[in-house]
Every structure is written in structure tokens, then in C-alpha cells.
Amino acid sequence: MDRNTIIAIILSVIVITAGMTVQTFFMEEEMASAELQAESQVAAEESSASDSVSVVQTDTITATGEEPDPTPFTVTSGEFEIGFDPAGASISSIKLINHLDGTEPVELVYKDQNDENIFTLHAGNTVIDDVFSHTVSEIDISPVHEGNDITRVTFTRDFQTADGENFTIEKAYAIPLNEEYLMQMSVRMYKEDGTPVSISDGNSAYTISVGPQIGPAFQSLSSNYDWRRMEVKYADKKDSSNIKYSDGVFVADEPVDWMSLSGKYFAFVLMPDEDVAISSVSAEQATFDEGISQKNIMHFSRDNDGTLINDIYSFYAGPKASKYLDIYNRMGENIYGLNESSLNKVIDGNWLSWLEAILNWILQFFNRFVNNYGISIILLTILVKLLLQPISKKGMDSTAKMGALTPKIEEIKQKFPDNPEAQNAAMAKLYKEEGINPMGSCLPMLIQFPIFIALYGLLNTNFDLRGSMFIPGWINDLSIPDTIFTLPFSIPLLGADVHLLPVLYVISMILSMKITQSSSTAASSQAGMMAFMTYGMPIMFFFIMYNAPSGLLLYWSTVNVISIGQQIFVNKKKKAAFAEEIAERDAEKLAKKDAKKRSRRK
Question: How far is Cα 23 from Cα 27, in angstroms, rounded to an integer?
């Protein structure tokens, strides 16, 4: 293998590794419910009739009235199957009925048995976990949609202060009946006389939390191909940014539009209505040896400003895919009338996102015809290779041309058997005389890197590949590794699952390098490096890519197979032609040399 190819491969390793790191680490309006809005207006009018504000200390609240039924229940609405817990009027389960985790719907609420539910209310150090009564109904909230738009689940419970004042806490959930993945929740606290009530811990009336983790379930997050992280979208920023913890805690230092807890394919995004007086936004992260290995919890605290508490939050719980998130940037396309929410910023992006979008459009185009994403990936790879053929051809021609110099390289090796420096100098002179560009095989590869990186990002995080089958019984899901069987023990660095695609990928990589090497030659000083690049580099990639998604490995394996075919063709057709050209030039040089000798004799 020539020095230029070695340089190109080393650069490719650097770029691919950097791409993986980026993937790993870098990797509203109103409830729109006519009923909720009407209640808000009535309550506001009532509160204006009185200037008195009752501030209730958290340790003096007592639930009153007959104890409601504490039995948890499930509501199925649109894309959701949601488990509600009357204790705290909270959510214990969110299942996406049209997305599977194995054979069961994806469970997005991932928690240990003793962890708090989603949307648990805190007042100071007190958790409001009293049992609430509830009602379930279907309501038409959107004037642009016909029929019922939401399932409304309303929880209420009366409370009393130590001074004997009575007030009510109401939590209501609006769950879409259509194919949207955003629900809304309202929090109301009121007294019969219309005066505001505040459950105070000082600056905050209450705090609402979401966590501890988003599903599907996982055993660890050590892989480059899965993650859980939190992001925040500041009000004055165009894009979201990853949260940076300090001793496991994050506190926003400026107004926040929304905060998200997301994994590779799904996300929770909590967004308060612009009228909600948020006093602070924070998050915490912790890791554990048992149970859930990592917990991430977001907290939104409501300001204790003495106003009527009738707050509305939008909560997205679904796929990280543009077709589901973009509609909340356009008022007329979602039932809640949200506009310019920027929820689509939760989708992982990088400086090549525009190129990923183009490649994804082509992938979807192929899939509309073949209805198999595995075949579509192969077709996309072939198309990309065809488009890049003019560039890659120059590199392969350069390699074949150097291969045609093998006899002369061997002469140099024999002439300087024990002097690697002299070999390299003589070969450099030879390349110059033959008009071979030392970067001829390297630059074409560098030019192609942006496309390779974009394809890596596309095939590593594309939601449409999740659950997509390529070959039944072998590659059943292109978004995860192809497990052919599981060992009763774990292998260091690999685990217990045995994957076949990484093996085929490494074999194709070794064959590609060996065929390229057969087309070129190098000084003996490079023999060790060549052996490492041929065998050591593929073995290293084997461990790096072992747990990669099947779709990504299918792409790289297809690239290798096509490259093998291209290089074989070039070697067969071009190498002989280059050898003939070199022989003709040598003959001409020899003839001129003989002519000079004869002229001197005369």
C-alpha cells in the first residue's frame, strides 16, 4: 500500500471517530381547549373582585372530603396509551402504541419502582401525592378540525389550610385523538370566592418535575450508538444547547422556552405557556450501580407572585422526527394552535444536516418503490458511488499507475536493500519522473468525506430505520445490531450478543485493502505500516463498529464491496495500459540515449 493511501486511511479514521464523538456528545401557545380557556377567564374575573391573597404554607395542607378511588387507570387516545395514577394526579406510563420495543409498545416512562411519576407537584419539600378524583371525556377544542380533538382527563381534590381555608387543586390533561404526539396539562389552584391561593416555599408557588428517564429501557449508555441527554432552548436563542451540569446540577440563568430529555429516537419536551410565570428552570443528573444506570430529571418552578394559578404546559412525548415535530411551528397544522415552537430543534443536527436532509430524501424516494430500507440503503450507496465515480476514479487510477511501476520499484529495493531512506528518495524521484501526484489517491478520499460523514449521521439516527426489517430472521431491525444468537457469558468489549454484520464488514475491509495493495507497492520501510493498515485497522474498526446499527454497517459493507469491484476493474483495464505507457516512454528514453551515444562516437 502506498504512503498516500495510508495517509488517507488514517485521516478517515480521524474523521469517522470525530463524527461518532459529535453524534455521542453533540450527537405553546395555549392549551387551546375552549373549556380550559373559559375557566381561566372566569377565574381571572373573580380574582379581580378581591385583592386578598392567601399564602398557604406547605406543611399545613390537608386533603379534605371523602377519599377518592386510588386505583390507577389507563386511557388510550390517538397514539398514546397513558397510565394515570390518582395519587398526585400524575402519569406513571406513556406507551406509544404504533412504535414497538420488541413485540410490545415503546414505554417512554423509564423508572424504578420507587421513583416519582411524571408531573408530580412539589411544594417546598412536600410532594403532593394525595389521591385525586378524576373524570374522563372527549372534547372538541380546535375550530379547524371536525369532531372531538382530545381526551380530557381532569383530576380534582379539595384541601384545607391550618386556618380552615378551603381551596381546590385541579390538574387536567389534554391528550390528542389524532396522530399528534403532544399533550397539554393545566394546573389550577383556586378558592370558592375567587381569590388566588399559593402553595408557597418562598419564591416558588410549586415545582413540577419530569423524569427520571426516557425509554425504551436500557442496561447501559456506554455505547457510541445510544445516549440520554438533556437540552435547553433559551428564549433569545435560535437553537437548543446541551445542558452542562455542575456537580450533577443545572440551573438556567436566563428565560427558557423549553427543556428536553431525549434519547436517540425519542424525546420528552416540556414547554410552559408564555403566560406561565416561571421562576426557575433546573435539572439534575445522577448515575447508579443498580437499577437505572442514569437518571435525568427536569424541574420547572412557578413564581409565587400572588396571582391566580391557572397554568398550561405543552408536553411532547414521541419520536425525534421532523414529520412529527415540524407541525408545531405552524399554527394551522396542530390542534393546539402552537406556532414557532422550535420543538424540531430537539432533533440531533450538525454542520452537515443539510446534506443529511438531501440524502434522506433520496433514501425515502427509493423506499417508496422497494418498501425495504435495507435495499434502499444499498441503492442509495450505489447512487452515491456513481456520483462520486469521477472523483474516486482519479484515486484508483493513481493507485493502478503506481502498481504499473512495480518492476521499477523492485529494482530500487534491490539497489538499496538496506537503506530505507535511499529507497524512499529514489521512489519519490521515480514518481516525479512518471508524473504521478503523491496526493493522487488521498485527495479524492478527502473530498468524499463530507458525504461519508453525512451518511453516517443519517443511518445512525434516522428514526424511519427503527424497527425496519431487511432480511427476516437475520436483520430484523436496521437501527440496532444484527444479533444472530446470545452467548451464556459476556465477552470483554463485545458483550454476550453475537453480531454477523461486523464480521462481514471487517472481511470486506481487509479484502478492499489487499486488492488496493496489489495495485501498488512501497518501500520495505513501509511494510510494517502496510500490515497494520491491512489487518490492524480493520480489527480496530471491528471493535468500534461492533455495536453499530445494522443500517450503518450495511452501508459501509456495501461501500467496501463496490470499491473492491471498482479496483479490480481498474487494475485489469488500467494497470496494463499504464504499464504499456511506461514501457513506451522507457523505450523512447532508451532510443534517445542510444542516439546521443552514436552521435558522440561520430
Answer: 3
Pairwise CA distance, residues 231 & 271, whole Å: 12
Amino acid identity, position 571: N
The per-residue pLDDT for range 82-111, each reduced to its tens digit, is 999 999 999 999 999 999 888 899 999 999
CB 553, CB 547: distance < 8 Å? no
Q: How far is CA 43 from the centre of its chain?
A: 43
* Whole-Å CA distances, 187 to 206, 207, 231: 10, 11, 24
- CB neighbour list of residue 492: distance below 8 Å, 6 or more residues apart: none
Give the CA angle between residues 200, 202, 207 to the nearest 5°.
60
The terminus-to-terminus CA distance of the chain in angstroms comes to 48
What are the strands, taking DSSP E only, across 408-557?
483-491, 495-499
What is the assigned CATH class of domain 35-346?
mainly beta
Contact 441, 399 (CB under 8 A): yes
Question: What pLDDT does residue 483 have?
Answer: 87
CA angle 480, 486, 489 (to 5 degrees): 125
E strand or H helix at 72, and its extent?
none
The DSSP H or E segment spanning 188 is strand 182-190
- Which H or E run contains 333? none
Report pLDDT for 41: 41
3-state SS string for 111-156: CCCCCCCECEEEECCEECCCECEEEEEEECCCCCCCCCCEEEEEEE
What's the confidence (pLDDT) of residue 523?
Answer: 46
Distance CA 601, CA 595 (A): 10
DSSP string, 302-324: EE--SS-EEEEEEEEEEE--HHH
Residue 389 belongs to what H/E stretch? helix 389-403
Q: How far apart are CA 430 and CA 8, in angstroms?
A: 21
- CA angle, 226 then 294 then 492, to 5°: 60
Reduced 3-state DSSP string for 390-403: HHHHHHHHHHHHHH
Query: Which segments of the chain have a pLDDT < 70?
Result: 1-60, 124-125, 142-148, 162, 198-202, 222-224, 393-406, 434-445, 447, 516-533, 573-598, 600-602
Lay out the sheet containing 80-85: strands in order across: 73-77, 80-85, 90-101, 104-107
Position 583 scores a pLDDT of: 65
Every domain of the chain and the residues it spans: 3-20+353-406+438-589, 35-346
pLDDT confidence of residue 13: 47
The pLDDT, as a whole number, for residue 569 is 77
DSSP state of 494: T
Cβ pair 396, 388 in contact under 8 A: no
DSSP string for 537-575: HHHHHHHHHTTS-HHHHHHHHHHHHHHHHHHHHHHHHHH
Contacts of residue 479, defined as CB under 8 A and 6 or more positions apart, other chains included, come to 265, 462, 465, 466, 467, 468, 549, 550, 551
CA distances from 154 to 30, 53, 64, 90, 130 (A): 17, 25, 18, 11, 15
pLDDT of residue 367: 94
How far, in whole angstroms, is CA 596 from its chain's centroid? 70
Tell me if 277 sits within 8 A of 300, measured CB to CB.
no
